[in-house]
Backbone:
């Protein structure tokens, strides 16, 4: 059995030119050229260790003949234009990579974060064939950059807790797929695991247990760990809904706390509870949270939630009714708009960009600031509706990108489907087009991100890897590469499945518990497991 002409990375590069010469790459020497970046230094050490340990054989090459290369790879010289280590939505992640048919390779990037992406690609060009590590397809030339600036994962750590080690492993896996945003849905109605120095009661009364908490130091550690891998950490503190847990410390700030048994009249799921928008103290509390956590979380974006607020919760609240009776022109909608005005103003006051779920834009009378990032999830048409209003969209349609779906209902007296079933296969994730039904070039530019989500009603650290991978990787390639090639051809799952097999096995080798796509026989016999 003969080897393939080249190794093909995941995500696939924007431009990849290769020939047919195989060279040896047994000795890996990666060297920074004229750089003082500590992030680059640590990345080179990390990838040197990954590559030196890794002996990855693509499944289709299990019977390949041992290569007989006449030349070998020398050093990989890494050169960046700027030593700046600022990471933001506008950071340049482009790079070029050249591997000759013998001698030194070169990796060039504008920033250290572009170099990180190039190092990941380089690590995927080094298969081991019959015991020999090689680079196939030399001389090869890659020019690469992402299509979307925001390629994210939203992870809910409130409904069930995830230890720091599992968050770090997830950041590792994200970096292997060139994802660059962890949207940390760190609190919700069920628990408040993160430390607050302004309101210490929140964690004391809201964490599931003392060993299910995130300290300030934990948060800073995750932020730094992510940055070293080119991943931004965007926190979400959902308000005014999904806040029952606040009532365990500050019940006077709340409305409709844990209504039972008819919780469904007051919330999307139990337990019910929302900040009381008729009380200035509740808005002041929310502003206090923003002022605290906007300093702890260093990213330029701060997510305010704003989803699934329940009007009946407030309409029946005695304080809200009293306020409306005393203010003839006030309504629940004007109170909600006033609340949103205060919290978005607080985000702006901290020098941050606000982010919110689409209900803030579509299901209220409030008009968010135009720089607000709108996360669209309810249906796929929310994306064109968002950009038509002139807002930037982060595409997270539940119909394609919610990775927790497909396990049935979690309410113990209902043997049926969950609201977002069925399961989203990697093919369904890959086939979703964030740009569908958006034809205006200006509006297409407003689609700035894509993000898969793992909500944790039925997930925790035990199921984390298999629920995420390799399905999140399917989204990651579309977000990096786009849906079409230079000729306008839409890539199909049939065309990419072998590369995703490679990526899945590579990730498993790196300690990520990614689930299989097919039987191993299919991975070893490309093209033989297709519907006729």
Residues:
């Amino acid at each position: 059995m003969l080897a393939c002409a080249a190794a093909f990375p995941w995500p696939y590069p924007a431009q990849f030119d290769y020939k047919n010469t195989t060279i040896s790459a047994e000795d890996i020497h990666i060297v920074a050229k004229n750089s003082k970046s500590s992030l680059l230094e640590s990345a080179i050490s990390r990838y040197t260790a990954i590559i030196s340990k890794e002996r990855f054989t693509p499944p289709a090459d299990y019977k390949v003949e041992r290569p007989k290369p006449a030349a070998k790879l020398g050093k990989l010289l890494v050169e960046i234009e700027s030593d700046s280590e600022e990471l933001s939505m506008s950071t340049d992640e482009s790079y070029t990579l050249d591997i000759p048919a013998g001698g030194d390779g070169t990796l060039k990037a504008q920033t250290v974060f572009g170099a990180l992406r190039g190092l990941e690609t380089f690590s995927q060009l080094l298969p081991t064939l019959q015991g020999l590590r090689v680079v196939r397809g030399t001389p090869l030339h890659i020019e690469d950059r992402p299509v979307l600036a925001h390629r994210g994962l939203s992870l809910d750590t409130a409904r069930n807790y995830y230890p720091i080690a599992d968050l770090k492993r997830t950041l590792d896996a994200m970096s292997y797929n060139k994802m660059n945003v962890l949207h940390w849905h760190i609190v919700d109605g069920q628990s408040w695991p993160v430390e607050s120095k302004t309101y210490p009661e929140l964690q004391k009364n809201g964490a599931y247990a003392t060993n299910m908490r995130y300290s300030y130091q934990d948060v800073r550690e995750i932020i730094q760990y992510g940055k070293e891998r080119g991943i931004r950490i965007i926190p979400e503190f959902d308000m005014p809904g999904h806040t029952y847990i606040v009532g365990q410390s500050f019940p006077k700030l709340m409305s409709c706390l844990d209504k039972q048994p008819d919780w469904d009249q007051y919330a999307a799921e139990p337990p019910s509870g929302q900040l009381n928008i008729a009380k200035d103290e509740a808005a002041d509390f929310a502003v206090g949270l923003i002022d605290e956590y906007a300093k702890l979380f260093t990213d330029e974006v701060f997510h305010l939630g704003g989803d699934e607020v329940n009007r009946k919760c407030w309409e029946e609240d005695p304080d809200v009714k009293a306020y409306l009776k005393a203010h003839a022109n006030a309504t629940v909608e004007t109170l909600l708009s006033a609340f949103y005005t205060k919290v978005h103003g607080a985000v702006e006051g901290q020098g941050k960009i606000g982010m919110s779920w689409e209900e803030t834009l579509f299901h209220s009378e409030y008009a968010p600031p135009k720089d607000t990032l709108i996360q669209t999830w309810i249906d796929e048409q929310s994306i064109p509706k968002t950009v038509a209003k002139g807002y930037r969209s982060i595409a997270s349609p539940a119909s394609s990108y919610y990775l927790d779906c497909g396990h049935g209902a979690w309410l113990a007296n209902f043997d049926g489907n969950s609201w977002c079933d069925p399961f989203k296969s990697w093919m369904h994730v890959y086939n979703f087009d964030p740009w569908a039904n958006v034809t205006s070039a200006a509006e297409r530019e407003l689609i700035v991100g894509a993000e898969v989500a793992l909500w944790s009603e039925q997930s925790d650290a035990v199921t984390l890897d298999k629920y995420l991978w390799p399905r999140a990787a399917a989204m990651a390639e579309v977000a990096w590469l786009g849906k079409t090639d230079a000729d306008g051809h839409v890539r199909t799952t049939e065309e990419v499945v072998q590369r995703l097999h490679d990526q899945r096995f590579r990730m498993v080798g790196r300690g990520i518990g990614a689930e299989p796509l097919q039987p191993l026989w299919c991975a070893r016999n490309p093209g033989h497991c297709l519907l006729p």
User: Anything to note?
Assistant: Residues 163 and 211 are 9 Å apart (CA to CA). The longest strand covers residues 132-144.
